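Bumping with the actual sequence this time:
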Amino acid sequence: MNVIDVGVLGSSRFGLRNLVVLILTQDLFRKRSQARLQEELGLPTGVPKVWLAIDEAQEFVPSGRASLSKESLIQWVKEGRQPGLSLVAATQQPAAIDRELLSQCDLVLAHKVTTSDDVDALNRLSHNYMASELKQYLRQIDRRGEALLVDDEEESVRVVQVRPRRSRHGGAELK
């Protein structure tokens, strides 16, 4: 596992943080695509499958505006499954993430969402196997630590309990 904290690099759509993500995603995409071809021929590669986790995803794949890494990340979610690339995109603002990325989500974990823009963005992820719109399911979340889990593989929607945070957190919580 490798962790690259780009948070210390500043938060401009066209800044160093986005440039690092762009270069990293393009390089990993190219290497995994080549490795996948070798794997199909039965050859060893030494290039593992990749799970890329991005926090504050709206900074890299913003809705309605450009960023340096946006097209690369959209390609990752649209074409990356075959070569063995997966993405975890975390945000507190689902409406601020480009719809093209959101439409590729196979698994959605949503804690309590209250702003209408964010509820509408998640509601657009409603699928035909759901008994009602996603926003109806979001109303079922009423306790701390509960989240809605939408799983396309199992075609299911359920409320789950997330364990309490054990790590330090920069934000203070009122009790």
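The tokens above came from a reply further down the thread. Residues 16-40 form the longest helix (25 residues).
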